[in-house]
Amino acid sequence: MFERAKKVTAPLAGLVVPLLAVSACGGADEAAPADGGGLRVVASTNVWGDVVRAVGGDAVEVTSIIDDVNVDPHSYESSPAEAAEVADADLVIYNGGGYDAFMENLVANTDAPVIQAVRTAEDGAEEGEERPAPAQGGEEEHAGHEDGAEGGDHAHDGEEHGDEAGHGEEHGDEAGHGDEGGDPHAGHDHSGNEHIWYDVHAVHDVAEAVSAELGELVPDQAEAIDGRAQDLGSELEGIEERIAAVSEAHSGDEVLSFDPIPQYLLEEGGLDDLAPEEFLTALEAGNDPPASAVADVQDLIDEGEPRVVLHNPQTESGVTRQLRERAEGNGIPVVEISELVPADTDYATWMGGQVDALAEALES
């Protein structure tokens, strides 16, 4: 268990997957592969690291700075070794929106292209009809971080940090990954909720941006990279279809979430989260919710209001454990969700499994 507000400093080894090989960067037009044969890619968490790995295949060597479920990206403090890895990377990807704020200083010191997932998703949304972002506990804390996003398809550090990183001139005109024909996956406004990996539309947009960047870095492998991106896109579209089936069968059904992370999934599934805002706000900050909010949640459970409870065992506290046990005692199905991709699986399998578990619970 971790408290989201807790300061955590990682040791130099242990939280960093030892996949990076040390080698000099190539020229500006084409990156030189790492000694292990792949481009050096650094991701803030294993969610985005897995997306890069799925798209890049053998063309990449991926390091995910955070892949431990006990570490909170909101308050993580990076090490000098991780700063060096980012500085030497061929491509960097992070979430943005305040979720992994430790990356802001790191990407300011790399000349590599940088994909910021929140801005990439927002740029995709600009191409389609925007829908309101679901309310969640961190809205006040993180709202407005990405308000200055301009119309490119992904964020480079030069756009976010100004000229200090030197990315604007080199990469600022490389946008346009996906402009052709519009984006069928656009829709959500991501400015108020940074947990965008629970929006499969957004992950699809990010995967396409990754494919475009990798294709530019290693043009001789661009066709294979694009093929893997399309394969991943097909998997994600399958998950979207399963979410749409949930919406068709259960639109308006009431659920109760003990964590703000699945709000995009719940919105897309047409489900109404009964969790009080002050309840989620406190949990997002790593605090116990106010007694009044806990009492309201207890009443909802005792009255059998939610069809399903969503519980994150990775962030379980004494309060949420007691509430989970109360729900189980009242015969309410509990679906486990998680913040990071568990070991020995991949993003599509993990997210698809959570959608299937939710659908099954709603049918029970």
Distinctive features:
41% helix; 14 helices; Rossmann fold; 4-stranded parallel beta sheet; 364 residues; alpha/beta
Overview of this structure, please?
- The chain is of the alpha/beta class and 364 residues long.
- It folds into 2 domains: 8-242, Nitrogenase molybdenum iron protein domain (Rossmann fold); 248-363, Nitrogenase molybdenum iron protein domain (Rossmann fold).
- 41% of the residues lie in helices and 10% in strands.
- A 4-stranded parallel beta sheet has the order 3-2-5-6, sandwiched between helices.
Structural class: alpha/beta
Radius of gyration: 20 Å
First and last CA, distance:
29 Å
| Helix and strand element order | EEHEEHEHEHHHHHHEHEHHEHEH
| SS strand fraction | 5-15%
Largest sheet: 4 strands, parallel
Protein name: Zinc/manganese transport system substrate-binding protein
Subcellular location: Cell envelope
Keywords: Metal-binding, Signal, Transport
Family: Belongs to the bacterial solute-binding protein 9 family.
Write the layout of secondary structure elements.
Blueprint: E1 8-9, E2 39-45, H1 46-56, E3 60-66, E4 76-77, H2 80-87, E5 91-94, H3 103-107, E6 114-116, H4 117-126, H5 139-142, H6 157-161, H7 167-171, H8 200-217, H9 222-250, E7 254-257, H10 263-268, E8 272-273, H11 277-284, H12 291-302, E9 308-311, H13 318-329, E10 334-336, H14 347-363
Parallel strand pairs: 1-4, 2-3, 2-5, 5-6, 7-8, 7-9, 9-10
Helix pairs in contact: 1-8, 1-9, 4-8, 8-9, 9-14, 12-13
Protein name: Zinc/manganese transport system substrate-binding protein
GO molecular function: metal ion binding
GO biological process, one term: metal ion transport
